[in-house]
Each structure stands twice: as structure tokens, then as C-alpha cells.
């Protein structure tokens, strides 16, 4: 009985330490968000660039490996610049169309007031003035300044990470003294990289499956700024749960203001709802469950957790960060129960002990998240 009691106490103490460590780590992530957020975004971009480079080498016949990395960097930066240009151009178009939409907003407010039985109702301009937009200018300017600062920090981190990646194999050899530890570290690094790449692939595929048909429907209905809305649907798709709601409700609400009758907005809402239901409830869960092995409840909780700690960047990175945490926690006996709860099937590391496919090099030479093997060059 004494040995059993000691074992129970030791198990309880170990689990308590794990919970305390999670709370302390969360507090540290929150306090150091200004430093860690751009670093996490830079690492995410680095994995994306590395994935582009390896796809070019594997999929394009006779593609020179020495050019894969520079071209992947150019493509990634080009996509970011294209996104910024499209958003900026359409923001200017929105500002120029404000006077056109005000009468329609007044008519919409009047119809809503009549439905509610209000004899005297304010105009759209009066409602806007009551909101006092000038009071939000300083807040918006602060957010734009913070966004610019974060973007510069991300680019600086990314540049230094790319410059220092060549020395990582030597550091790994010094850091992991024995072949066994290097073997284990290589498997962990490869699992993390593969998990993030699978997440990227799933999000890009599902985002395109939603954005392209939505763009076709919006163009067919004559919605203004259809390119902007398609970009928005694709980008917010990287935010679990919330992003889908924004993408489905935003264009129909704008259509109510643009068109004189509501039927086009209703058609657009119905089309987006059908596409969102099929992709969000059938296609995406199947792809995510089989590829990422994350429980849907864990996705929801991670969105709330990382959103509370790092804001919007945390929402974008919530799923890959959870994948990384699940893989790391599974390596420690005391914290493995957390990884099991985060996983979809109770096997956070998969049914096998290695992630190498047939024909791949041994796990000791598995590539790290930075694309280099953990062996001495």
C-alpha cells in the first residue's frame, strides 16, 4: 500500500508541475509577445519558403537546386506584396465609393426602421457621426504603426534566420553529442516541419476551393471589388472558425448596400453558405483529421488561447503552434497526456515511431525545420 500511495503522489506531483509549467509558459509568451510574435511569424514564413523550394526541386523536372531557395524567397515576398497592393487598391476604391453608398445606406436604415415600427429614424450619416469616427483615428493610427513595426521585425528576423541557417548543422552536432540524441532530435524536427507544411497545404487548398468559386459568383452577380473580397476570403481562411464566418457574411452585407434589391445579396449569402458548409464541415475536417491529427475541440481552444496571448497573429498561427506543442509534449512522459488530449486519435506521434517514408534517408539525416540535415557537413 505504501508503494502504491507513493506512486500516486509522485504521479499527481508530476502532473501538477506540468500544469504549472504550462501556465508559466503562457504568461511568458504573453509578456514577451512583442519579441516572440514576429519571431514566430518569421519561422512560419521560413518553413513556407523552404517548402516552396523543395516543391520546386521535386516537382519541376531538372530544376537546379541552387536556385530553388532564392526563387522561393522571391515568390513568397511577391505574394505578400501582391496581397498588400490588392488590399490597398481596393481600400482606395472603397473610400471613393462612400458618397455613392450613403443614399443606399439611408434607404436600408429607413426600411429597417419601418420594419421595427419607428416613425422617426436617423440617417446613415447621423449614425456615423454618433459613432464619432474621429475618436478612432488615433487608435487606427496606433494599430497601423504596430503593424508596420511588426512587419519590419518579421523581415529582419527572416533575413537573419536565412543567413544563419547554414551554421545550424554544426550547432546541432555540438548540441546533441551522441548519435542517439541527434536521431531523436531529427525525428522531432521533421515531425514539426511536416506538420506545419501539411497545415499550409490544407489551408491553401481549402482557401482556394472557397475563394475561386466565390469570386465567380460575385462577378456573376456584379458585386463591386470582387477581387478584394476573394482575397479576403482566402486570407481569413487561415483563422480557424472565425475566418469562415467573416468570409461568408462580409460580401452579402456589402451587397445589401450596393444593390437596390436584396435578392442578389440573398443569392450570394446562400451560395457562400453552401460552399462554406461543404468545405468547412466535410472537406476540411477530413483533411485536417487525417493529416494534422488534431482534435476539433483543441483547434477551438488553441484559437482562443493564442488569440488572447498574441492577438490576430496568434489566431493565424494557432493551429501550427498547437501541432508543434503536441509533438514536443509527446516526447516527455509527464506531459504526454496533454499531447494525447490534443490529438484526434490519441496517437500524437502517429501509429509508427518514425515519419520517414520508404526510400527516404535515415532519420539521423532527416532535415530540420530549416531544411538542413542534423549531421556534420
Overall geometric form: globular
Strand residue content: under 5%
Give the SSE order as H and E letters.
Answer: HHHHHHHHHHHHH
SSE class: mainly alpha
Rg computed from alpha carbons, rounded to a whole number of angstroms: 25 Å
Q: Helical percent range?
A: over 70%
Whole-number total of structural domains = 2
Got a strand count?
A: 0
Major pleated sheet: none
Describe the structure.
It is built from 13 helices and no strands. By secondary structure, it is an all-alpha fold. It folds into 2 domains: 1-29; 32-96 and 132-365, no CATH class. Helix 8 (179-221) runs antiparallel to helix 11. The longest helix has 43 residues, at 179-221.
Which structural traits does this protein have?
77% helix; mainly alpha; 377 residues; single chain
Summarize the structure.
The protein has 377 residues and is mainly α.
Element layout with pairings:
Elements: H1 2-31, H2 33-59, H3 65-96, H4 98-115, H5 124-131, H6 137-164, H7 168-175, H8 179-221, H9 226-236, H10 242-258, H11 263-291, H12 296-329, H13 336-342
Helix pairs in contact: 2-3, 2-6, 2-8, 2-12, 8-9, 8-11, 8-12, 9-10, 10-11, 12-13
Amino acid at each position: 500500500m505504501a508503494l502504491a500511495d507513493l506512486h500516486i503522489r509522485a504521479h499527481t506531483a508530476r502532473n501538477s508541475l506540468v500544469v504549472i509549467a504550462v501556465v508559466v509558459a503562457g504568461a511568458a509568451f504573453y509578456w514577451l509577445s512583442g519579441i516572440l510574435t514576429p519571431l514566430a511569424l518569421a519561422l512560419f514564413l521560413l518553413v513556407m519558403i523552404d517548402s516552396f523550394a523543395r516543391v520546386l526541386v521535386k516537382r519541376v523536372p531538372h530544376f537546379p537546386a541552387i536556385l530553388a531557395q532564392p526563387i522561393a524567397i522571391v515568390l513568397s515576398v511577391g505574394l505578400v506584396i501582391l496581397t498588400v497592393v490588392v488590399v490597398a487598391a481596393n481600400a482606395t476604391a472603397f473610400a471613393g465609393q462612400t458618397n455613392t453608398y450613403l443614399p443606399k445606406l439611408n434607404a436600408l436604415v429607413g426600411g429597417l426602421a419601418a420594419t421595427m415600427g419607428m416613425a422617426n429614424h436617423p440617417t446613415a450619416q447621423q449614425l456615423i457621426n454618433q459613432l464619432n469616427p474621429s475618436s478612432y483615428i488615433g487608435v487606427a493610427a496606433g494599430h497601423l504603426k504596430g503593424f508596420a513595426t511588426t512587419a519590419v521585425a518579421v523581415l529582419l528576423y527572416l533575413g537573419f534566420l536565412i543567413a544563419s541557417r547554414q551554421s545550424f548543422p554544426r550547432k546541432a552536432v555540438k548540441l546533441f553529442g551522441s548519435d542517439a540524441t541527434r536521431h531523436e532530435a531529427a525525428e522531432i524536427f521533421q515531425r514539426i516541419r511536416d506538420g506545419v507544411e501539411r497545415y499550409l497545404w490544407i489551408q491553401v487548398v481549402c482557401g482556394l476551393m472557397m475563394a475561386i468559386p466565390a469570386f465567380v459568383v460575385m462577378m456573376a452577380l456584379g458585386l463591386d471589388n470582387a477581387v478584394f473580397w476573394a482575397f479576403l476570403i482566402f486570407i481569413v481562411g487561415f483563422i480557424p472558425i472565425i475566418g469562415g464566418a467573416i468570409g461568408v457574411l462580409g460580401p452579402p452585407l456589402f451587397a445589401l448596400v450596393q444593390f437596390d434589391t436584396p435578392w442578389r445579396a440573398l443569392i450570394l449569402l446562400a451560395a457562400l453558405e453552401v460552399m462554406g458548409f461543404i468545405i468547412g464541415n466535410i472537406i476540411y475536417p477530413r483533411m485536417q483529421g487525417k493529416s494534422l491529427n488534431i482534435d476539433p475541440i483543441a483547434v477551438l481552444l488553441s484559437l482562443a488561447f493564442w488569440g488572447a496571448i498574441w492577438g490576430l497573429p496568434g489566431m493565424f498561427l494557432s493551429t501550427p503552434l498547437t501541432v508543434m506543442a503536441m509533438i514536443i509534449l509527446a516526447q516527455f512522459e509527464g506531459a504526454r497526456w496533454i499531447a494525447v488530449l490534443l490529438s484526434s486519435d490519441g496517437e500524437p506521434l502517429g501509429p509508427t515511431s518514425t515519419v520517414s517514408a520508404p526510400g527516404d534517408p535515415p532519420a539521423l539525416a532527416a532535415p530540420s525545420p530549416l531544411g538542413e540535415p542534423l549531421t556534420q557537413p
